[in-house]
Structure formats: C-alpha cells, structure tokens
Known about the structure:
The chain is mostly helical. Helix content is 67%, strand content 5%.
Amino acid sequence: MITWRAPAPAGQTITGTVVFGDVIQISGVAGEVTVATDRPPYRMEAFPVAAASLSPERARAQPSRLLLPRYQVVPFTGRDDELVSLAAWMGAGEAVSVRLVHAGGGQGKTRLAGHVAAACATAGWAVWRALHTPTATAGSRVDLPAGGGALVVVDYADRWQPSHLISLLTHLHGVNLRSGIVLRVLLLARSAGFWWHALADRLDGDLDLHADAQDLVPLGGQVDRAELFHTAQRQFANAMQLDAAVSPAPAGLDGSGYAQVLAVHMAALAAVDACRHGTAPPAEPHAVSAYLLRREYTHWQTLHGRAEDRIETPPTVMRRAVYMATLAGALHRADARAALSRVALASTPVDADRIIDDHRFCYPPENPATVLGPLYPDRLGEDMLALSTPGHPHANDGGAWSPDDWASDAAHTLLATGDDAVAVWTPAAITVLVETARRWPHIATEVLYPLLRQRPELAFTAGGTTLTRLAVLPEIDPAVLEAVESPLPEYQHVDLDIAAAAVSTTLTRHRLAGTTDPAERARLHAAHVRRLSNAGRHQEALAAAEEATRIHRQLAEANPAAHLPSLAASLNNLGNQLSKLGRRGEALAAAEEATGIYRQLVEANPAAHLPSLAVSLNNLGTSLSVLGRRGEALAAAEEATRIHRQLAEANPTAHLPDLALALTNLGGCLLDMGRRQQALAPAEEAVAIRRRLAEANPAAYLPDLAASLNNLAAILSDMGRRQEALAPAEEAVAIRRRLAEANPAAYLPDLAASLNNLAGFLSDVGRRQEALAAAEEGVAIRRRLADANPATYLPTLTMALHDLGAFLSNVGRHQEAISQADEAVAIRRRLAEADPATYLPDLAMSLNNLAAFRSRVARSQEALESAQEATGIYRRLVKVNPGTCLPELAMSLNNLATFLSEMGRRQEALAPAEEALAIRQRLAKANPAAHLPDLADSLVQYAWVCAKGGINLPEACSAAQDAISILGPLTERLPEVFGVKLWLAYESLADVLDGLGHSEESAELRRELKEAISDETGEASAP
C-alpha cells in the first residue's frame, strides 16, 4: 500500500485561490488569494482526475479514443518500483520539488501521471496541470487545497521553451513562499537531454529547488504481456458494451514491436473491434495502427454521409487535414487557415473554416484557443503520417492504410514554400518528423532528409533538443548532417553549441571511417575539439586534441615545412583543454611549445603567422598567470596586444575579437602586477569592443563580453571604485546566467566564477547578506560540478569555499567559516599529494585562510599551526623557484608574526616580521607599483610587533613613519583602498610613541587621527 502524503507544515490551513496572469477585478472572495501578475505563456487548470465519460456509441464509432489516458479505460498496472519512488518523492521534506519522468512515446508516462494524480487527489491534494500555449494567456485560476499539498503535472516538458518552464516554476515557487503550500511538479518528456540539465541547474541555483529525473524504462518483465493484452481486451469490450469475446494474443506479442504498453493496448483494441465486425484481428504493430486508422476514416465517412448534422468535409479531405494537423500541431485559427491554404486543402478562408470546424467536431481541442489538434495518442499520429506517406514496405498488405501521393510532398509544401522565412508551425513539424523517423525510416529518407538538404536552416527552428535527436537518428544520412552543419556558426553560439557538438560527433565518426590520410584525420579531430569544447564536453575535447597533436607531431617530424603550423595550432588547442581541466603545468608546456614554433614561423613568413603567434601568446600569458609567473605573463600579454592591435588596424572585422581578448588578458596581468591605473584602460577598451560585437552577434560574443566585464569589475574594485565595480559584475552574472540556461555544461563554471566575484564586490560595499547569498550559490554550482567531474572542478571548488568562508565570517558565522576552510584544506591536501608542483601553493593559501578563521574564535594554537605549515610550504617553493612565491611567503610570514604576537610570544614574532619586511623591501625595489602597498603593510606589522613587545622601538618608529610616507600619496589617489591602511600606520606609530615614553605626542596624534576619520566612509587623511 503506497501512501500519498504531503509533509504538511504544522498549522497549515490554506484556503482560497491562486491566479496565474492578469487579474482585473476580484470580488466575493473567501479565503486567501495569491496573485501572479504577469501574462504567462501557459494555462493552469485543475487536472482531470476523474475519468472522462465516453458513450459506447462514440467508442464504437471512433475506437482510438479509448486509448486516450483521460478515459482511463484500462486499469493502471505495473510500475510498482516507480510508484514507490514517486511516493517517497511526494512525501519528502522539501517545500517545493521538481521531478522529470522521461521515456519514449507510448511507455505510459501520461497514464503514470494520471494514476499518481488520482492517488494524490484521494489523499486531499490539489492536482493541477499546466498547458503550454503558443502566446501569453490572459490568466487562469485554480483552487488551493484545504490541506495537504498540490501536484502540478506538465506534459511535453521538453517541447516548452526553457524560459517558459522557468517562468512557471518561478511562479509556483512564489506561491509556496506566500502561502506555505507544499508543491510537487511532475514533468513528463521523451528525453532528459541537455535541456533538463540546464533547467535543473537553474532551479537549484536560482530558486534553491530540488530537481531530479526518473527514467521510465519499458515494462519488460514487470508485467505479463499476454495478461496485459487480455485485461485491456476485456475493458475495451466493456466500454463498447460488447460481449467480452477473447481473441488470442498476437503471435509476435513478445517482440520488440510490442515493448510499449500502448502498443499492447492498441493491439487489444483492434482485436475487440475486429471481433465486433467479424474480421481477423491484425497481428503486426503497423497493421494494428492501419486498422485503427481505417476505423477513423469510417467515422469521417459516416459523419459526412448522414442526413442530419452532417459534416461537409469529405473523408478524403478530412484524412489530409488530420495528417496536416498531426504534422503541424495545434494552431490559432488564422495560422490554421494559412496552413490549409499552403497545402491546397482550402482555397478560401470560408473553405478553411469549414474544414477547421469539421475537424474540431471530430477532435475537440484540449486548448479552446487553438484548432487542428494532432491525432492522439502520439504513436497513432506518427503511424498515420508514416503509413500515409508512400515509401514504406506495407503498402500492399491486405487491409492496409493506403498511402496517399498527396503526402509525398505535403511536408515539403507546408514547410519549404511560401514567402515567410519560417512558418509558425515549423518547429512542431520538424520535431514530429524527427520523432516519426525514429521508427519509420522512409519518413527520414523520403521526407525529412530531402527537406533538410534543401532548407537545412529549418532544423534549427525546433531547438537544440530536436537537432540533437536528429543527429543520433539510426543510420542518419551524413549528407543531411553536412547540410545542417554548413549554416552552423563557426565559433561558439549559446543556442546551438550542444546540437553542434552532437552533429560534429556523428559526422566526425563517419568522416574518420572514410579516410586513411593522416593529415585529414588530424584536421577532423582538431575541428571536433572546438565543437566539443564549446558544448562543455571538455574530457572528450581533450581526447580529440591529444589525437590531433599526436598525428601532427608525426607529420611535422617527417615534413616540418608543411606541418609545423598545424602542430602549433593543435598544441594551442591541447593547452586550452588542459587548462580547462585544471592541468595547469601541462597546459603551460603545450602553450610554450606552440609559441616557440610560431616564433620560428614568423621569422620566415610574418604575414602568414603573426595572427597565430599573437593567439598563442595570449594562451601562454594565461597559463603563466595562473601559475603565479606574473612578470612573464605580462610580457606575453603586452606582446600579444601589440600584434593584435596592428592586425586590427589593418582588418578590424577579422581581428577585433582577438584584440579584445588580448586587452582583457593585459588588464588582468597589469592588475596582478599592482599597476591598477594602467590596467583600467585596456579593460575598458576590451569591454567597449566586445559590447559592439555582442550587439551585432550576441550568440557568438556574449560569453566574451561577460569575461571582459568581470575583468573590468575586478580592476575598478582594486582601484577603490567599489560601487562602480558592481554594475559590470552584475551584468556579467546576468549574461552568464542566461548562457548557463541554454548550455550548462559550457557556462555553469563561468556563472559560478562571476557569482563569487559579485559576492566580493557586494561585501566591499557593505551588502554582506547579498554577498553571502551569491557566494553560496557559486559554491552550490561548483559542488555539483565537482561531484560530476572532480578532476576538473575540485580546484575551483576550494577557491569558492575560501570565499564563502570569508563571507560567513563577515556576518559573524565563524564556526561555519572554519568548516568551509577545513573542507578546502582537505581537498587541496589530496590534490597536492597527487600533484605537488601545481597544488602546493593552493594548499598554503588555504592553510593561511584557515588560520585566520581559527584566530577569530580564539583557537590560537591551531591558527598558529596552520600558519606555520603554510609558511613551511612557501619556503620550499621559494627554494625551488624564488621568482614564483616570494610575495606569498612574505604574506604568510606576516600572518605568522601576528598569531605569535597575539599569543604573547612577541620575541618569536619579531623574526617572521623582520623576514617579511626584508622580502618586501627587495620586491618593492624591483617593482614599486606592485609591491609598495605590501611593503607598507609589513612596515606597519613590524612596528606593531615591536610596540607590543617593547622591543626595537626606535627602528619601529622609523618603520611606522616609512609606512606613512608610502601610504600618504597612495591614499590621496585611492582613499577607499589605502585610507584604512594609513589609519593603521598612524595607530602603530602612536603605539610606538607610547612605548618610547612620548605619551603627550601619542595622545595628540590619536586626537588628530580621530578627527581625521570620516564617520561615514572610514577614510583617513594625514593628521
């Protein structure tokens, strides 16, 4: 016994109504009313739990109606495991939860949903269904439950636009927040492809809603097919009020053609009706469909021929109208008129309206705002299209549904003719043709493929899910995919990247099988890398990049003049994929080798190879930067920018995108070197270029614009212009959120990065709770990514955990901050054990952060131990490569001095403070712009340690004064950045003066300092 229950909140007594859409006036309302005020692209209504009535006369006249789930003719059977899982989902603790049930057509998704809905209604739940509408609706209303929860059923969810599903689920989330009602949303679809992953990630990230998927596998051994057949036979006979004569089950009932519940039910229905008419029942699945279609035709014929209330449309015309309706999907009347005219079924609007009204009589639409609904169930409708279209092998079977030569070019006429570029019915028609072609090869070869060869752009109208399913059709004609591939954008496209990768996967496999030429095979692998990478399939992209590089290396060894350029290009691709997968050292090696090759090539032929050298320098700079080799990274970025600017001046169309990338990287490198003012100009120029490019081609350039906006925000923040930094950071998040909806695999990592950046900027302006929310969302995304692909995403998860710890600490949640830092240290310790060269610096950083969080809750000894371990790691790294981690060693020594001093071990604190100061003096002498602020920090730290310990006070006084002399000019330029540091320097000087016995000077200094501090901003001016 399965109990359907809601985890109802205590005291829940909800009564009233929820309204979706505009409300003009409400009067006479009892109870609560929850209102969503925008016009949604769907209609919400009560789910028809009770079986719809169907008279025996109507059932005998049109037997196929008995197959429709709403009549509930055959009792629900099987699916015990699925029902247990759904019951657990319904009764779980979440206030709102979403589940996708997916399976091929005819597996019983709708019947399962109806069974669950009925059980919920019996248990006191409200049960609603959301119907997608072609345009926004004026509104709809459903009743809230008196108790329990509400179940919302959404059929054909994979055919909704993702934004429309998001709109629906956002509204439902709001209903829960306002009313407290427990909500479960059950989505039904044929597939759970990338559209579902995008939706689930968005729900988790934006709405904090739990979402999962359940695959509805064929019944297989769950039921006895013969028993299912005979049970259905009895029920259909009862519905028709016929004697329950039992026909034997078809001989092939155990075959693959009857793996679906619906196929068995169709065979049982045909057997009952055949017995009624004294004919032999059909045995093969296609013959069953043909039989039921003939019964439809007889129904049209009877309606047309009767004396009273006859329909005027002849059965031959009605047959074609039903074909067209099944192909095009439900339409508004004006569009239906146009479609009927297009396929020559109506010459005037009057003729079209007559056909529409007669069709409406035979097949009343679910949505009263539309006409010409498809023939249901889907399997029967698809079989009608297939059996009506010449070319299938069953045309000469006895009693078959005869093909119609009109259907040979009906789809072509409907979709590929006319003045409009793409008709409104095109997306539905392409989707139906692709789904039909999965079971009927002649629909593929005779209808779909010729259509797409002529107009390949039509494939894009049905969306990425359908295009992806097209690419994996059994025995897909490569020529069709090549036609579809041709108009695909060469570079990334947010709406098409996933489908492009699917097309490329099928075509690459076919093309590799057709060539033994190594150069061509390498070229195919290299092209496939780009498609896979754009879709976020980085592991597969890496494998393709490695194979392309391997082949090109062999070719270049044999013939350098011919193949060195290709080897360099492959190395760049390889480096990019290694970088995206977190393999930084290997990525740098590939970038260095590629750049070295291009330098040789430029010496021989600058015009041909300068652009490639500049691109390679960009990649090299990025790899150097992430490994902390900032000076070398800057040199590479400057050279790349110079070359790209020269090229863009000569040919802006070709080279402006690369210039924008180079400027973005240059701004980041300058910022890393402490050259904030110089970093701003290239960052702003990059944003301006990419904004123009994105306005002209948003699908291609919006991702790049988001990256440049992130970079600009970081520079503005580091310059103290923190309020200004918010706008580009928020814009970057908004762009990447839209991109991640369409292609989560490619863009969720970027969204997580932007959220972490935004969190920092929000914290800087005091909006700490908002900062915490953004950081938590970023960590949630990165945790999911790391669960799926730890090798790639664990390193970025640790950085997000650090940031989250800081934001938790800022709002006083120190123990939670320590928990985040502990997790980051544990992960980085494991990474460093496997790859110390790459991850030891990260581990040291994590240890320093953990030390800081522990210190704030008085866990001094543990804080000291973490700081000591971090310092020890940095010492080892500096010994191996002094140019890499000296700044980090100085920072860690400063932290160590602080913890020792706070524990009263002031004499011990002096040594690390002195060492940090000495390091930063050397660094500032070599690069003042980058290291003077850090030198000032160490001077203040040294003065503070000496003052607290009463040691080296004259030297401490000089150190504090030196810090003030450094920070004074910096504060004048960037008061928000350096004002607090200057205040600390004066405080340290006052402490030293106290230690030297100059109490009057110290008191005067503190008084002046207090007066100089702005109450509002905390900025300081020199006393």
